Amino acid sequence: MVENALQIIQNKVTLSKINRFFTDEEISQLVEKYGTPLYLVDEEALHDKVLELNRAYEKFHGHVKIAYSIKANFNPSILRTFVKDNITFDLTSLGELFFIRELNINPENIVYTSVTEELDEYKQVLSYGVTRIVVSSYFGLVNLAQAANVVGIIPKVMVRMNPEVGVKAEVRASYKNGKFGVPLNGGKVDSAYFIVKSIFNNPLLEFEGFHFHLGSQITDFVCYVNALDRLNSLLNKLKKEIPNFSLKTLDIGGGTPVFYNEPVPTPSEMSSVYIEKLNNLVSSHGKFTLMIESGRYLVAESSIMVSKIVNTKEYNDHKIVILDTGYHLLLDAALLKQEYPQEVISTKNNNNHLYFSDSNKQYTGKNIHLVGRLCDTLDVFPTSKLSDLSYANIGNYVLFYNVGAYSLVFNMPFHCQTKPPVLMKTCEGDIKLIRKGTSYKDLYEEEGGLIS
Ligand SMILES: Cc1ncc(COP(=O)(O)O)c(C=O)c1O
């Protein structure tokens, strides 16, 4: 009993760290108007994260640029918010470029890192005026040079290296024989060394610097130290062989972690592990611009998903709590077993509490199960150590916190499910509908229902 009480106190303390930008009452009112499931976004939190990330690199002896990896959440209103912060945008596809063009974002504020690196793709990217391009293969470089020739623009080329260092992260992007980038020396033509030399031998291209991306939700930052050590050796080698070699930009990718199940280091704590290495690179190789990419950290904590408990079942000392959402709206809960912090709130008009006055006392975290509405075994939401499900009764709402990254962008119509609306609380305190919910009719049409 004592242990249980302590656990609850701990939960409350840690949940209070969560960005909770609407009161229970306000959420009830929004749900009355828009229904559930519903996403809520806090604009102020987006600006705050940019500030925090900038602050973390204040001690770097050079210029710092923050780049938002729009793959994490490409909602146009969120992109517009970041435009106000005058940050750079990290793009990976022509679809993302389309969004950026629609928003008239200055091509100088773009870094483009393709996986496919097709000729036509590079032509379109350069034609929009984007010059900072990250290449990840030798054939990619050949295509870029050809596109540069056609479009008549000299791109500033960054080389995506795969440092092949071990990474402790939820998603790893640096590993031996990996898909991303090229190893430092590995292949005949597909090596960072060979590609840099090729750039210096080609008047259609200008060498800008290096890029690496180690992974997402990184929790041990020694991988950055190891990657920077490997880069330093390569820089020394290149300097000896290329007389006019200089590093103008170093992009160290994403990976800044977010608070889900466990507290994680702050961006400043993270950068403190390798800032000295970065400054040593400046001392040895001259001043360069440091680019920090971030998707997850910049958007995750801005958003809450609200769902409703629509049914419950109790057997064998377990309680199954059935929600009107599912992994079709929060895919990482199934893909990565992401433990989003959840909290149940009592609804104003919910009279069901009369039947459940102290109903959940016997359930601890382990025997209360939040499950989704899909007819799929995977559709069970892992709970976080912070989750507070004490009021998990029919009619109440479950808030999923920190869902702003890699969530809306994964929404899918599995089981003929529609997309929920998204509301933004603006910095002025207004509430704006930033994505309309879709209807079954929309879905039917989209799936070809009107084609006879
Ligand atoms: C090249 C690159 N940069 C940045 C990111 C963003 O990573 P995170 O969301 O962990 O900051 C990704 C994510 O996949 C990526 O592939």
Automatic annotation (TrEMBL):
<feature type="modified residue" description="N6-(pyridoxal phosphate)lysine">
    <location>
        <position position="71"/>
    </location>
</feature>
<feature type="active site" description="Proton donor">
    <location>
        <position position="375"/>
    </location>
</feature>
<dbReference type="Pfam" id="PF02784">
    <property type="entry name" value="Orn_Arg_deC_N"/>
</dbReference>
<keyword id="KW-0663">Pyridoxal phosphate</keyword>
<feature type="domain" description="Orn/DAP/Arg decarboxylase 2 N-terminal">
    <location>
        <begin position="52"/>
        <end position="300"/>
    </location>
</feature>
<dbReference type="InterPro" id="IPR000183">
    <property type="entry name" value="Orn/DAP/Arg_de-COase"/>
</dbReference>
<keyword id="KW-0456">Lyase</keyword>
<dbReference type="InterPro" id="IPR009006">
    <property type="entry name" value="Ala_racemase/Decarboxylase_C"/>
</dbReference>
<dbReference type="InterPro" id="IPR029066">
    <property type="entry name" value="PLP-binding_barrel"/>
</dbReference>
<dbReference type="InterPro" id="IPR022644">
    <property type="entry name" value="De-COase2_N"/>
</dbReference>
<dbReference type="GO" id="GO:0009089">
    <property type="term" value="P:lysine biosynthetic process via diaminopimelate"/>
</dbReference>
<protein>
    <submittedName>
        <fullName>Diaminopimelate decarboxylase</fullName>
        <ecNumber>4.1.1.20</ecNumber>
    </submittedName>
</protein>
<dbReference type="GO" id="GO:0008836">
    <property type="term" value="F:diaminopimelate decarboxylase activity"/>
</dbReference>
